[in-house]
Amino acid sequence: MSMSHLWSREFLGKRSILWLLFVVNMLGTIYGYIWYGNQIVDTISHGYIWQVIFVPDSPTASLFFSLALLMLLYPPKSLGAAIFQQFIEALAVVTSVKYGIWAVAIIFAGQAQGDILVWQDWMLIVSHTAMAVEALLFVRLFHYRWTALAGAVAWTLLNDTVDYTYGVFPWLPGVLYDHLSKVEMYTYLLTLLSGLAAWIAMKYARNKRI
Questions:
Q1: Which terminal CB of the chain, N or C, has fewer other CB atoms within 10 Å?
Q2: Model pTM above 0.70
């Protein structure tokens, strides 16, 4: 079996592969929400309940991807459900690419400023890189259109705005808080670039299906 077969539509679309990745991503999602536990509690204590939905960025991206996989396993029957599926798929790609790259870049930016990397950092680097890669690989199985993609980008920009307006962005390495404005600018820019990557991947996938 050639290596290219491992990211082909035929291989990725196997129910066994979909179930395997669904389980792995759901376990990662649960772990991610536990990881954000202290920040969620802190947000509830010092902010407003409605802000909590914007706190756990990466696990929510993983949740979107898990739901997208589930809807590939059990395709929707109605038009409304199909539209919802497109929105979830677009969110899965945009947020997985965005937060996958964001987390890795922030970890290395902290290291460049003197932060010492520990084994948890390397675990996060591997897992978040995988988030971005798997999302782009599965575009060829997804059905989202530009309207759903625009909605996903708008939601992610809203998330960025809430994060940096109310201070509920993911906790950063301590050495980066002096560069918060640059982190904020980078976050917004990465959202737009992730939306662009999702659009390019969508167009490429459509062309490859012909």
A1: C
A2: yes
